Automatic annotation (TrEMBL):
Function: Activator of KIF1B plus-end-directed microtubule motor activity. Required for organization of axonal microtubules, and axonal outgrowth and maintenance during peripheral and central nervous system development.
Keyword Cytoplasm: yes
Record organism: Eleginops maclovinus
Name assigned to this protein: KIF-binding protein
Acidic residues composition-biased segments: 59-68
Coiled coil regions in record: 347-374
KW Flavoprotein (keyword) present: no
Major localisation: cytoplasm
Length: 639
């Protein structure tokens, strides 16, 4: 490049500084009717810098490149396979030639022009400039002077193609950025130049510490975008790994927004939970809770009324902390449910032999827990790690094996239910509020599994009814039909479970005739309540004229046939001393059993969804008429 006077170079540096200030600072204050005003001004300054650099290069006798964008002749450039990068690697990480540095500086301007066009929603022009940067970098070896530019431009192209749903193309750019970082750190590792150093006077150059931080942040961005790419490609395990590492690096670099970071960590916990990795899930949630606290206290309602800014901040903090609370609820619920699946026998009761076996295995598991923790990816610095560890100690991550352990998990979940409902109230958040209620109900149901006292277990199910029934009856089916169906079915099943518990208690007596009238009435009320809600569910499937559907849609096929089967079973179990009442109940029971059989005979595709229920229904269709005839004969003889 031809000799450049200090005044000329300082003028270029000043223009670059002004362009950066316009892009980062001034653009935040642009009016709504001219949102890109500052960025357009920055673009003009970048064009001037580019022209100056090209004139210096031309003055040096070098052949002028035909660069794209407004700074040169545009021509379409396809995404490269990036084989040039591997060639650059093979040459080693060493200082670049003067020509390479000149190309890198021009490439940096192309990069900033590309970002500018993307920011102003001119994606095609942005792509042109970014690809021109890539073309200029073909003349460079990867070195400490330009490695940051190598990574940044690939990050931007990855974002650009991901935004077009060209996920695999984005993947190629981002994975190359990752490999450049890893090879550079392995073979060189010195604090690399930042791209702003290209256009800084000597006294304004960044320190080694600042360069290192910016370089690490660029790589953190590569990992963040790769996490999104792998998620979109269905590679969930890789996506989770990259997401976890990104969060860890953001904390280490102190480059994060507390609430955004906390929500991302809480969301990641849900992946670990579905994989049964409760230690990692608990750690993510504990970190999310602690880091969210860095956002400060929720402004008071009075302060929110006085200031629009405080009102928005209050709303955001309350909502996001409530969302984290909901993630905690899922953690506790899944932990209880996974344990229940392992401990229950063929009829859904606690398998005590399996319980003892798991307790023996638990002792070995506890011995290995500390080793596992050390190998896990942990969050936090010295300032936050103790707080995170302290919160983790308050909730277990091992599957509960008895009532006391299950109750400890339940109480944590119930505490977060209270927190979540404070924000997601019925007035304004109907769907969210009901989902939280359903989770609360499921927490009670899971805890009841461990309770040996059947009366206390029945009271837990009664709590479920008390929280669900009023809401279900108040919901407008016109707007919340699916939710109301879910609640009706759950209420029916809950009453059914209570009825089974009462039946088990009754069976401990000599026979039903020894039950007092109060107990019989209670038993029958539970049967009737269950049948009522199952019938309400079935009625919700009818046409406005009340006609039963000839064909059940796939999403309601099994629930509808199971509801029919359960109603049939309930009518047959009602305790009635009068033979005429027994015949009436058995006739209703037979009617519902017949429906299950006839529907499956007419729609063979339904058989696989209710094999057990269908087999029992066929059996009862054969047996019940005999029983009904005997009762009728007995009635005739008595008359």
């Amino acid at each position: 490049m031809a000799s450049v006077s200090s005044d000329e170079w300082r003028a270029i540096c000043d223009k670059f500084t002004n362009a950066q200030n316009l892009t980062v600072v001034e653009s935040c204050n642009d009016p709504d009717n001219d949102p890109f005003r500052s960025k357009y001004k920055a673009r003009e300054l970048l064009r001037e810098i580019y022209c100056s650099l090209k004139s210096f290069e031309a003055g040096d006798g070098e052949e002028e490149e035909e660069s794209g964008g407004e700074s040169g002749v545009q021509r379409p450039v396809e995404p490269p396979v990036d084989g040039q990068t591997e060639e650059a690697f093979s040459q080693g990480f060493c200082g670049d030639s003067p020509a390479g540095l000149r190309a890198a500086k021009l490439g940096a301007v192309e990069y900033y022009l590309g970002v500018n066009h993307v920011d102003t929603e001119e994606l095609s022009a942005g792509q042109e400039h970014l690809m021109n940067c890539m073309k200029l970098l073909e003349r460079c070896r990867v070195s400490s002077e330009n490695v940051s530019l190598f990574i940044h431009v690939r990050n931007q192209l990855g974002i650009l193609w991901a935004g077009r749903d060209e996920t695999e193309t984005a993947q190629g750019f981002l994975e190359t950025a990752e490999s450049i970082y890893q090879r550079y750190m392995k073979e060189d590792g010195s604090p690399p130049f930042d791209m702003t150093d290209y256009f800084s006077t000597e006294e304004n150059l960044l320190t080694h510490q600042e360069r290192t931080k910016r370089f690490e942040l660029a790589y953190t961005h590569s990992m963040y975008y790769l996490a999104q790419v792998y998620k979109n490609l269905g590679e969930t395990e890789r996506a989770a790994t990259y997401c976890h590492s990104t969060l860890q690096r953001q904390l280490k670099l102190n480059q994060f927004s507390p609430m955004e970071w906390a929500l991302n960590a809480a969301t990641l916990s849900q992946y670990y939970i579905t994989k049964g990795r409760y230690m990692e899930g608990r750690h993510c949630l504990s970190a999310a809770t602690v880091i969210s606290g860095l956002a400060g206290d929720v402004p008071s309602e009075a302060a929110a009324q006085e200031s629009e800014t405080e009102s928005e901040r209050r709303e955001q903090l309350r909502q996001k902390r409530a969302e984290i609370a909901r993630c905690w609820i899922k953690y506790c619920l899944n932990l209880l449910q996974d344990s229940k699946k392992l401990l229950e026998d063929s009829i859904g009761e606690l398998d005590t032999d399996r319980q003892e076996e798991m307790k023996r295995a638990r002792r070995l598991e506890e011995e290995e827990e500390e080793k596992e923790r050390k190998s896990a990816l942990l969050f936090g610095s010295e300032d936050t790690f103790d707080s995170i560890a302290s919160l983790e100690e308050k909730v277990g991550c091992l599957l509960p094996l008895d009532f006391n352990e299950a109750r400890a998990i339940f109480l944590v979940g119930q505490n977060y239910v209270t927190q979540a409902k404070e924000y997601f109230q019925m007035d304004g958040y109907v769907t969210d509020h009901i989902e939280i209620l359903q989770d609360h109900s499921s927490l009670f149901r899971s805890l009841a599994f461990y309770e040996e006292d059947l009366e206390r277990r029945c009271k837990m199910h009664k709590r479920r009814v008390d929280m669900m029934e009023p809401v279900c009856n108040e919901l407008n089916s016109k707007y919340y039909l699916m939710i109301r169906r879910q609640m009706m079915f759950e209420l029916a099943e809950t009453f059914n479970e209570m009825m089974d518990l009462k039946l088990t208690l009754a069976n401990r007596q000599d026979d039903s005739e020894s039950l007092d009238s109060h107990t019989i009435k209670k038993f029958n009320n539970l049967c009737s309540a269950s049948a009522k809600y199952f019938q309400m569910f079935l009625d919700s499937l009818c046409s406005p004229e009340g006609k039963q559907p000839e064909h059940l849609e796939e999403e309601v096929l099994r629930p509808a046939l199971v509801a029919r089967f359960r109603v049939a079973r309930l009518y047959s179990r009602l305790i009635c001393t009068a033979p005429s009442g027994q015949v009436e109940n058995l006739d209703k029971s037979l009617e519902h059993y017949k429906y299950v059989v006839q529907y499956c005979d007419t729609h063979p595709e339904a058989v696989a969804t209710v094999e057990t229920e269908l087999e029992l229904s066929r059996e009862m269709v054969g047996l019940l008429p005999l029983k009904i005839n005997r009762l009728k004969a007995k009635m005739t003889a008595n008359n």
